[in-house]
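Researcher: Please predict.
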Amino acid sequence: MFAVKIEPDFPDTDELRALFTGAGLVKTFNIQANDSTAILDLTPDENQLLRNLSSRGRNAVRRALRDGVQAQRVEPTEETYRTMYALIGQAQQGRLSAVPRPYEYYRGFWQEFVDAGMGRFYFVFEDGKPSVGAFVILYGRKATYKDGGSLPKRNQYGDSHLVQWEAILDMKRLGAREYDFCGTPPASRLKDKDHPQYGLGMFKTSFTKTVTDFAGCYDAIVRPRTYRVWHSIGERVARQIHWRRHRQPFY
């Protein structure tokens, strides 16, 4: 072992950067999807919580409810897993062209959280078939919208907002005090249409304007000489070889 990667859940500040640098940590590229993210405060009552959404988000939820859009929690069966994975694949058609990991990766992740009582699935149905899906995890007082997907052509207005609203209320009932939408552009680039997460950012900030930039990824160096080789060339080569062989991210 020559280094340890850390990605702490601490807001990025000048003071924190100085502390990490003083401790010998080296800033590197971020790995986690939610190093910048929108977080919704769940402590208000349900009526106030709805009023706290932006007008666009609030109107989308109300319109979907008024039109009778069906959103609900679903049981974590093999069929649910397969359906959710298919919806994730459909969602890659936009500007954010992330490559989904293999089904076995997702299934294993979902099963671990389901078995621990920490993961739930939510679907919207259109013409009797799932059209929007979300997988949300709860740990302590924090809920996180971990995975999501949807069919590209849908007729129900507000369906994506409603599935989130259903999950938000369910997590609130379970004791969550905040809901992490897991990934937006950095606060400074939220309105930058060239950012690959621009569309996702606009959707997620229709629930809350609070965007938090976390510290991101740092390396704690254990063996400096080996780390210098890794940092200068080894990591880049390893990532390229891994991608050519597996067509999957290295991390």
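Model: The domain at 36-213 is CATH 3.40.630.30 (Aminopeptidase).
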